[in-house]
Give the backbone structure.
Amino acid sequence: MSNLKDFFGKKVKVINLGIPSFADDLKRQNVEVIHTDWRPPAGGNKKIQALLDKVETWQNKVNAAKGAK
Amino acid sequence: MLIDIKEANKKAFDAIQAAQPIIKGIGTCLDTVPGMKQNLILHAGPPITWERMSGPLRGAVMGALIYEGFAKTPEEAEKVAASDKIEYSPWHEHDGVGPMAGVASASMPVWIVENKTNKKCTYCTLNEGLGKVLRFGAYSEEVITRLKWMEKTLGPVIKAAIPFMPEINLKNMVAQVLQMGDEAHNRNKAGTSLLIRELAPAVIKTDFSAEDKIKVLEFVNSNDHFFLNLSMPAAKAILQSAEWIEGSTLVTTMCRNGTDFGIRVAGLKEQWFTGPAQIVKGLLFPGFEETDCNPDIGDSAITETCGFGGFAMAAAPAIVKFVGGVAGDAINYTKKMYEITEGESQSFQIPILDFRGSPQGIDILKVCEKQILPQINTGIAHKKSGIGQVGAGLVNPPMKCFEDALQAYVDKYCD
């Protein structure tokens, strides 16, 4: 709890992820903010995320096998 | 399978860098293009049947049938086109490409481009100019008359001129035009000008009549897009060198037939992944509305696949006057494409980005992960056959193509 009090007692610097209007609101209040154009992988599409995960898992196995050689 | 995707993609990317497409010559489609037959019509985009063809593609097919003597009238051509006398096949399955409808038939002259690195050839018809032309689905008498002149005079004169020209390395020429304000897809003023510099003295040296030589040079000079039909087979030759590298996730084909958009991927040999062709957003010629526009059509997206065209729009800010937007948009489109590509071209440099190499080698994994679609700029055909071009603009492929390719990749390699 005390940590949280310390946090609000200091000047806030913000890194905003995703929705740009959140950063715009802070800028209007003179809060220092860096916006990062981030989106969840595959735009949150679970089917595509699962396919990308399969590719990643396969590549981890490939790299492990290469390392074992 | 023990395939490292990074290694496979590096191999594909290196092959793309090593490709050196040159102008080899001009031939007749029937005698030159692999698998060509008298009754075969080649078209842009992925495979399609007559029943599913859009207006401009149907119009171009009808025009080609009249040109070849299969029919005398458009009505007769329509019947012949729907009969089993005629076969259809995508240009891409015959080592070639065609702009817009992309229709080619047996008698048409074609450019022959050779990749000096692997000695493989690619092909494309000669550009007819703008207005009422076959590639936009027009088939009136003036269209057929021009095609006959191209067969009897334009093709033979340029064919005879080529031996008098120095070797034309098209990769170098595309690299040069990017320094001159073209992006070699929808802006080809510099490319056509550079070609004329090489072509004109060689045409003069041929034995054709002065009248024929003048007509040929006037025709090329009057058509800013004459170079497009060389930048496209050059891109095809460059990308062909990455086909079919096992395990690679790089895209080697993006094309559309006016109904479907299709892609092919280096590690998924000869498989098509398709989705609905999209409506192009851009600037329309006076008198036309969005409801007049056909969905996206043509093999010219091979330029974007190869890292120029829409991917190098930052090099051609003036193009926004043709496709819409402001100059800053052109820069932003190029910058965004670095997010979904394997690397930067060693040949195609963009002056305003401090000569950074253009984004090259579209990776289906990056497209799917980041949900950023390739940026294409393109001409717009009227949806009815026989009318022609109605504007130009910007378009993206449907995400479905990339997601289906990813599914096929997982099925082939990861299960």
Remarks:
- Helices of chain A lie at 2-9, 20-28, 46-68.
